[in-house]
Amino acid sequence: MPWRQSPSPYRTWISEIMLQQTTVAFVIPYFERFIKKFPDVRSLAGAKEEEVLSLWAGLGYYSRARNLLLAAQKIVRHHRGIFPDDFDSLISLPGIGRYSAGAILSIAFQKPYPVLDGNVSRVFSRLTAQNKTPEEWWKMAEDLLDRDHPGDWNQALMELGATVCAPENPRCKICPVSFACAALKTKTQNLFPAPKIRKNIVKVNWNFLWIERNGKVLLWNRGEKEKLLKRHWGLPEMGKVHARVGSLLKTASHMITHHQINVQVYQGSLKKEVSAPMKWVPRSELPKFLVSSLWKKCLPKAN
Ligand code: SF4
Asked: The domain spanning residue 152 has which CATH number?
């Protein structure tokens, strides 16, 4: 994995944030592109939000990218650009919680902090054939931690969960801790951990307008108050601009967390000129602004 080559606190941080909710194979090309463009904290701190978001396009959970930028700026402002190596400073950075702080401290600084993610708690649940609260699993992670090699230990544990003790069909025959596994002994691997209660799917209907003039397309910054894709650039929703609505150009369906979004894109023509938070963007530059994978599905093709 590229973040294991020449490891540094910065590279560990970027990889750990990217790996949240995302698989290793998917993250690798994103990580490589990101590190090429922003090789260190200072280069990231000086970036524009759009640049960071466009490198994040397709990874989802875009608040992670915004928090990386805010945290890099804070490290430059408050820590002279040097990555902090203590828990309290790390946890005060945007987007860094107990898990990320533990991962950075143990992997990059060899400090004895545990980690707990979905992979680790699944291993613990099966090893003990119990369902416990996250707080109890944190306690187990703390108790088991190899204090002489905390980085290796944590990475091994996470990887065991990701590659061997998988959610479906755990590979118990090759598992290095099968000798101690209560779930294997009782053949109850698939009962642990107890399935999460899924949130009900919420249906959302969005009607967008495609308004093009002289090779430029009108975009709308969705702002802080929008429930989904907050502060993202997107096509204007109907009702946000005074426009004539023309023919239906495209329909698409897209999931964001537990929201199923049905999208209709209509041709539009302005009845009244617009100002911020709208802007005209050359068609060729749309990928820089429209970073959510929603837009890949619903942008009309160029004529
Ligand atoms: S023996 Fe099987 S269920 Fe138990 S920890 Fe290993 S892979 Fe998971």
From this structure: 1.10.1670.10
Tens of pLDDT, residues 250-260: 999 999 989 99
Ligand 1 atom with least separation from CA of 172: 2
Select from 172, 173, 188, 191 the residue to mutate for testing ligand 1; criterion: most ligand atoms less than 8 Å from CB: 172
Same domain, 74 and 3: yes
Question: What is the number of structural domains in the chain?
Answer: 3
What's the per-residue H, E or C state across 164-205? HCCCCCCCHHHCCCHHHCHHHHCCCHHHCCCCCCCCCCEEEE
Give the three-class secondary structure for 295: helix
**Are residues 91 and 120 located together in one domain of the fold?**
no
Question: Which of 184, 185, 186, 188 maximizes ligand 1 atoms within 8 Å of its Cβ, making it the mutation to test the pocket?
Answer: 184
> What are the pLDDT digits (tens) for 260-287?
999 999 999 999 998 889 999 999 999 8
- Any ligand 1 atom below 6 A from CB of 183: yes
| Largest distance between two CA atoms of the chain | 72
Whole-structure pTM value: 0.83
Ligand 1: does its nearest atom lie under 6 Å from the Cβ of 181?
A: yes
Same domain flag for 158 and 99: no
Range of the domain at 124: 114-197
Span between the terminal Cα atoms of the chain, in Å: 42
Residue 303 lies in a domain: no
Say if residue 100 is in the same domain as residue 23: yes
- CA of 171 relative to ligand 1 center, distance in Å: 7
Is residue 296 within 8 A of residue 240, CB to CB? The reply is: no
Active site residues: 16
CATH code of the domain in which 259 resides: 3.90.79.10
Read off the pLDDT band of 302 (50, 70, 90).
Answer: low
